Amino acid sequence: PLLAGALVSPNWVIVAAAVASMMFAELHRRAALTKAVFNVAQLALAVGCSVLAYRALGGVGLLRAAPLNVAAYCALIAVYFGVNSFAVSGVVSLSQGQPFLGVWSVNTLRTELYDLVALPVVYSLVQVYQLSGTGGLVLLAVIILGARQLYSTNLHLERANQDLLQVMVAAIEMRDPYTSGHSQRVAQYSRLIARAIGLSGKQIERVAAAALLHDVGKIDQRFAEILQKPGRLTDEERLIIEEHPARSAELVAMVNGLQDLVGPVRHHHERWDGAGYPDGLAGEAIPLTARIIVFADTIDAMTSDRPYRPALGPAEVRRELLKHRGKQFDPYICDRLLESEQFDALFANLAQRAVTPLLSEPPAPTRKAATAVEPVAAA
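Below the sequence we write its predicted structure tokens.
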């Protein structure tokens, strides 16, 4: 609606209208003062810059059914979305201490389809206003708001499902306090690694979902005693614990919306050279998501304090990844990760752990060995 208003009245009036509408919205939801000021300011900046770009390319007000200047129209929308996305991503990057380009790509690329859909919608609003006046525009607004409400409801359901998954994972990890928060950290590291190799926003979130659920099979009672064992595992116990990826996949397969995650969950302990488990897959036969989780799973193990060694630092982790490149790890992912700024992001705020567990971590028990096969200390 703001961009449609800019087409009709490309001047200070639409900027003032944008400021007034955003101020009303911020007051209605009782936003914190700092956030409210930022939201109003960034919207005013985005609308103002888009109007300037529109007029600079010869765009005129369409109130009297003037012909559309396509170049100016595209500039109006491109500048609006560009200024908006850079302002929001910039403030998130500064406040969270994350790389700007990484934040921008996640916030922008995942909504690029909606931005493309918005191209004809903006002009359509103007045409409806020209042909049907305020009444037609109100009717169209009701339809759009209905669609928005449906989308919002679905979004809330997705978030609720995500929260339930995290609660379930936290409950499982309570049985093994030694790895408390492990799955959430692996999910976060998987996001960074997926971003490093150039996956889209949607693909990144599916990788993170698989990583969050990769050890869910450990809820099986068969693993309970082994997970709580303070000493080293016997060969028989190790064979039993190696069944957890298959059990995790069986549980994930029971949920209709997670069918695409079954393979990655099952194969997150496979190795590039084929020496992993449960199926001994090698190379690109291993699902890409599983190959990413292998990195994240191992990096979390290496950067965690163990009774038999302290947590490794960036240089030591880099050395281990290169040592097992082409053996345990996909060489392409390894190279892209080590060349990317996302590698440094893996270690940001490591002292506080990059992802805070849902439940506070209990003191680490005096355990003498990890509970799973550790080619490079993978969890």
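Residues 112-173 form the longest helix (62 residues).
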